[in-house]
Model the fold of this input.
Amino acid sequence: MKKKNQKFLLPAIVFVISVGLWEFYVRAFDISLYILPAPSKIVQSLVENWDVLMMHSAVTLKEALIGLVISVIIAIVMSIGMDLSKTFKTSIYPYLIVTQTVPVMVLGPLFSIWFGFDLLPKIMIVVFMCFFPIAISLSDALSQVNVKQINLVKSFGANLLQVYSLVKIPAGATGLFSGLKVAATYCVGGAIVGEWLSSQAGLGYYMLRVKNGYMLDKVFACVLMIIFWSILLNLIVTLLEKICFPHLRKRVKK
Done:
């Protein structure tokens, strides 16, 4: 029990000390608001601009969630394809790696030129950032499924679809959700990047607007909102994993 308390207590102590030192430094040296706002000013700005931040959050979350759902679909189809065909995996795997070496800030303007300045370019950036961890994690998990389990269901006359639905997909759920947790954290950041490049609303748009006005307390308030939504989505995926696959949780406890 003591170690469990330390797991939450120690990070909380570090956080309080860090914020306290930050507040003291800003007040002691009279740092200007447009250079470094005090934590108290950031919280004040967060409260005062809550309605505006929530309005822009709705836009960003819409882009992030649509992109995340598309990423999951693409990743599952691609992972199953690579599991079914070694030739397909050998042919496509190097290009999956290459997609992650291309800077998103380079692709963003191209997406805007090709697909306009509406929702689509932001969603594509989210997909580009999120599908890779899901696809790789699920692909690795599917390749490590116990062959004896597969042979067992085949001995009862299971077809290919039943092999995946009864054995491979449930066994690969750990990989799927591992990648999904990473993607859920990335998706908000991907939407923000898209909004930096071309948008009329969203947290990324709002952040640029207040940054250009040197209102750094509002910039930090926006950052706090981004952190909040990213952590919340990660927690939702974790909860969804426990609901859909409770046996995974029991296995970890053992």
Summary: DSSP finds twelve helices and no strands in the chain. The chain has a mean pLDDT of 85. Residues 50-84 form the longest helix (35 residues).
